[in-house]
Specification:
The complex is a heterodimer. Chain A is mostly helical. Chain A has a three-stranded antiparallel sheet with strand order 1-3-2. Among the domains of chain B are: about 70 residues, Orthogonal Bundle (Arc Repressor Mutant, subunit A), CATH 1.10.10; about 100 residues. The C terminus of chain B is likely disordered. Helices cover about 65% and strands about 5% of the residues of chain B. The interface between A and B is large, with 61 and 74 residues.
Chain lengths: ~475, ~500
């Protein structure tokens, strides 16, 4: 009894702040990214593109495009408003209409339908109350399965109407009432979905770890592995860990088809996987792990330009690779998962290209390099200086003859120098430790001014020899 | 009187006494002298013991004679000081080892005299000699209150180089607990801080940093932090900038309370270091102007100025790894000279001289070439080269370092043995393990200690194979002798434990 009341309370009161935080985070994001407005049309067709997704992801992407791409804004937002109205998600509706007011103030849809809002809010409230009442009665009957279903219905209801924090809480509560492994998996997957929607990627990672413990049979693996891989990949991507993200995406089983298009389509997997691989792997790894991967090939066939970029990088045609990527920049800027990372990824690809380009040479003219990367030579020089100073490129610039020469490395000397430095460091540390030990042995520690020494006990009493020894030897090696 | 002189002259009976016999005779003489009245010891004008006895051969007699003279007349120091200085610069520490109190008493009189006439330089030589003779067996390696006095006097006299022979000897022992009332933690901290200041004055930054690091990581009881440590922290920041040229990191050995207190008290210094590490000349100039007064009040502006001077040097050095050739104008435009103001544009000719100076000091390896352009003006290109690295030089350094490492390893083992025999360790093990504790200690101790010789030996074998490091005598024989020093097999557990 009491439990169901507290549930209602939490759902209303303490749940709201969490969601509000998320809400606040979104406008901030858009505020800080107002600079990233894509004025040109991307290469894809909006209707076809959005048709690939289902569930909330459709709305999320539409709103994202609506906020970042003025030419497509009206169309995207109007579609979004239609879906949101059908879902009865009042908050997202307000948001969508506000955005539409900026781009198309004269559109009939750009006025808030107060009547609808009021009606829907009431309906949603009624349904929530009904579901909670049902749950309460299930709880009184103490039937586990019914309680689970009660929580699930409530969670689904919160999810479609946009109260994600409450939805997450309802789904988490199911855990205690799950009787089979399958139920557990379904529950965790729902949680992951909500976390992705909320952009809380650390929770995604913990839930992914949880779900891996529950995959027991091969059948489970077949069904759930792709979803888990994609979810993990998205989480790694968001935390900037491109190598692990790439491995996650590449390891995705192509059997996923459209099963997980509430998060990403197969095309997305190809793009995310390809880009993160380009940003984090060297040429050999690209060949063995990406281009030769039988599973990832299926994905790459959907996005041939990513394949071309990967092949170009692998066959050292860096300029071509970079120009392909540059051509699709707008598309990627309109992807909610990629937008924040696209500059970093491109930067990493560029850096790697320059470093890899230089490996076989002992000396290149600056002009040849700037031609290969298609930038003016002054800019090239600046870029090179930056790379050299950050220690990524082992080269020197000859400004007189406009050459880039590689540095000679004397490995023997370096090893000797390293050894010497290490030995000196060791000696210094050992001497310091021994002095300290001797200070304690002679009872010469710094003492508090007289009259303040309370209950310290005899000097050195607490410091047995063992501590001194470990203090001394602990730092030895 | 006559007996006093004869007795003193009769010691030592023969030059080849065994240490035991020598000690016995010395003790007897010491007891005899202690019983004499001051008048006897002071002698008369006709037979002045100070004239009859030799400073080196009859150190003990002379010491007691001084003692007599001083106790007769307090102001004798005014006449005696040249003789006192001679005595303290020459005496034989072996003879005075049973009469340390008397020795320090007389020395105190001399020091008071030096203070009174404000001539610290007079005290340097006597102090230096006394430090080496005071603890006869270990000499200057055992810390004494004289260490602090000596270094302080060197600073007062601004005679930094005189201090180096003593400072360069690493302190290995402190007086046994309670044996020397004059030594407190303050003396130890002061010695290391003053020592660091002298090293800073002589531009031996590495050593200065070691000394300061010791001050900072000095063990304390509870949360106690000394003001000396706070001062050391300020200097440490600047010395690290001098050494590394980048942001300093607090060594991990510093106890938390000390680090926290130092951070609070030395905030301007940290800010300065952060500005320095950014490598942005404008930022650094602004920060330097801000902290200048604070640094001046602390007496640290001198090093800070050297750091600023060094900024340019480091900047040019960094260029050598990025560029192989660069024109003087391009270097000048980088605005590395933070000492001058930004408005006075760097003069290319001055910069050229500066770079030549750096080449002369072998800080960088580069060559300058002048070429005239079509419009008649000349431009100067600097070509940077790699610093030459001679393998034989490095191997030589490595050999020296290995010897030092072996030495420090041996020291560590001796100290460990002493710790294993200390009361604290024994009560600790017996409390912890009950009656079986003692066995445990043996096992434990050797487990840890055995790593040491093995590491050292591995290094030596490699090195011997590479560079033929055992140059003296029969190659294999010499090698085995060398090994013998730290072979754990003949490491008996019998302590050479004398305190």
């Amino acid at each position: 009894m009491a439990d169901s009341f507290s549930l209602a309370d939490e759902g209303g009161a303490s749940g709201a702040p969490a969601y509000d935080e998320f809400e606040q985070a979104l406008p901030q994001q858009t505020a800080s990214t107002t600079l990233i407005l894509v004025p040109e049309l991307p290469k894809f067709d909006l209707e076809q593109y959005i048709g690939n997704y289902s569930g909330r992801m459709k709305v999320t992407r539409l709103l994202f495009i609506g906020n970042h791409c003025p030419p497509l804004a009206a169309e995207a937002l109007k579609t979004a408003i239609g879906i949101v109205k059908a879902d009865r998600d009042v908050r997202l509706y307000r948001q969508a209409v506000q955005s539409l007011q900026i781009f198309a103030p004269n559109d009939p849809d750009s006025k808030l339908d107060e009547e609808w809002i009021e009606k829907t809010t009431r309906e949603v409230k009624q349904k929530t109350d009904r579901l909670e009442a049902e749950l309460k009665s299930y709880k009184n009957n103490m039937i586990k399965e019914s309680i689970r279903i009660g929580h699930k219905d409530l969670g689904d209801h919160f999810y479609t109407t946009g109260d994600l924090a409450s939805a997450y809480r309802a789904f988490s509560r199911m855990r205690d009432y799950c009787t089979s492994n399958k139920q557990m998996l379904d529950m965790t997957l729902s949680c992951i979905l909500i976390c992705i929607d909320q952009a809380q990627y650390t929770s995604v990672q913990t839930n992914v770890a949880k779900i891996r413990n529950h995959i027991r049979s091969d059948d489970d693996l077949k069904v759930h592995q792709p979803k888990v891989s994609i979810a993990a990949g998205v989480a790694f991507l968001a935390s900037g860990n491109y190598l692990d993200a790439a491995r996650s995406f590449i390891g995705t089983n192509p059997a996923v088809g459209n099963d997980y298009n509430t998060v990403a389509t197969m095309n997305d997997v190809a793009i995310y996987g390809g880009l993160t691989a380009l940003a984090s792997m060297d040429r050999n790894m690209l060949k063995t792990e990406v281009l030769d991967s039988t599973t990832f090939r299926t994905f790459l066939e959907l996005e041939p330009h990513i394949r071309r970029a990967l092949t170009a990088f692998h066959s050292s045609r860096y300029g071509e690779c970079l120009s392909i990527l540059e051509g699709y920049r707008n598309d990627y800027l309109l992807d909610p998962f990629l937008q924040k990372h696209i500059d970093k990824i491109y930067e990493a690809v560029r850096t790697k290209s320059i470093v890899q380009y230089f490996i076989p040479f002992s000396c290149v003219t600056l002009d040849a390099m700037s031609a290969a990367f298609g930038v003016p030579s002054e800019q090239m020089e600046k870029e090179l200086v930056r790379l050299i100073e950050s220690g990524k490129l082992h080269a020197r610039i000859d400004t007189q003859n406009r050459l880039v020469t590689s540095k000679e490395t004397q490995l023997r000397v370096e090893v000797h120098r390293g050894t010497l430095a290490m030995a000196e460091e060791y000696e210094r540390a050992a001497r310091l430790k021994m002095l300290q030990i001797n200070v304690v042995r002679s009872g010469l520690e710094i003492k508090p001014p007289k009259g303040q020494l309370t209950g310290q006990g005899p000097i050195g009493g607490g410091l047995g020899g063992r501590e001194l020894r470990s203090m001394m030897f602990g730092n030895g090696a | 009187m006559e007996r006093f002189i004869t007795n003193v002259l009769a010691f030592p009976a023969s030059p080849d006494l065994t240490p035991a016999e020598y000690n016995k005779d010395l003790k007897a003489l010491n007891d005899f002298l202690a019983k004499q009245s001051p008048q006897t010891l002071a002698g008369t004008r006709d037979s002045d013991p100070l004239e009859l006895l030799d400073n080196r051969a009859n150190s003990l007699g002379i010491l007691y004679s001084f003692l007599g003279r001083i106790s007769v007349d307090k102001n004798e120091a005014h006449q005696l000081w040249p003789k006192l200085i001679d005595f303290f610069s020459e005496f034989d520490g072996r003879q005075t080892k049973f009469s340390k109190d008397q020795l320090l008493g007389v020395l105190k009189v001399l020091l008071q005299f030096c203070d009174a006439c404000n001539k610290p330089i007079l005290a340097l030589k006597p102090l230096e000699h006394t430090i080496t003779q005071l603890n006869y067996a270990t000499g200057a390696k055992t810390f004494s209150s004289l260490h602090t006095k000596f270094v302080k006097k060197c600073l007062d006299a601004r005679s930094f180089r005189t201090a180096l022979p003593i400072l360069d000897i690493d302190i290995e022992e402190f007086p046994v607990k309670g044996s020397d009332k004059d030594v407190t933690y303050r003396e130890v901290l002061q010695y290391f801080l003053y020592g660091a200041m002298i090293y800073m004055a002589t531009k031996k930054w590495r050593r200065a940093s070691d000394f300061l690091q010791f001050v900072l990581s000095y063990p304390g009881i509870g949360n106690t932090v000394s003001q000396i440590q706070a001062d050391a922290f300020k200097k440490f920041v600047l010395v690290t900038l001098m050494l590394e040229g980048r942001n300093f990191q607090l060594p991990r050995t510093i106890p938390q309370p000390t680090a926290r207190a130092c951070r609070i008290l030395g905030r301007p210094y940290e800010a300065f270091a952060t500005a320095y590490a950014t490598g942005n000349p404008d930022l650094l100039r602004r920060e330097a102007a801000l902290v200048k007064e604070i640094f001046q009040a602390d007496g640290n502006w001198g090093i800070a100025e050297q750091c600023l001077e060094n900024f340019r040097r480091l900047g040019i050095k960094a260029l050598t790894s990025t560029y192989s050739t660069l024109s003087i104008e391009a270097i000048a435009s980088r605005d590395l000279d933070v000492l001058g103001s930004k408005t006075s544009a760097t003069n290319p000719e001055e910069l050229e001289r500066y770079i030549l100076d750096m080449i002369d000091r072998k800080e960088i390896k580069a060559s300058l070439s002048h070429s005239s352009t079509n419009d008649g003006s000349t431009s100067c290109m600097v070509s940077f080269h790699d610093l030459p690295a001679s393998e034989t030089d490095i191997l030589k350094d490595l050999e020296v370092q290995i010897a030092r490492t072996v030495q420090i390893t041996n020291q560590a083992r001796q100290l460990d043995k002493k710790l294993g025999l200390s009361k604290e360790w024994i009560s600790f093990t017996s409390k912890k393990r009950g009656p079986g504790g003692a066995n445990d200690h043996v096992d434990q101790g050797f487990e840890e200690m055995d790593d040491y010789p093995i590491q050292g030996r591995g290094g030596i074998i490699d090195m011997a194979a590479m560079g033929g490091m055992v140059g003296v005598g029969m190659e294999t024989q010499g090698f085995h002798d060398y090994m013998g020093v730290y072979d754990p097999a003949d490491d008996d557990m019998q302590p050479d434990y004398d305190d």
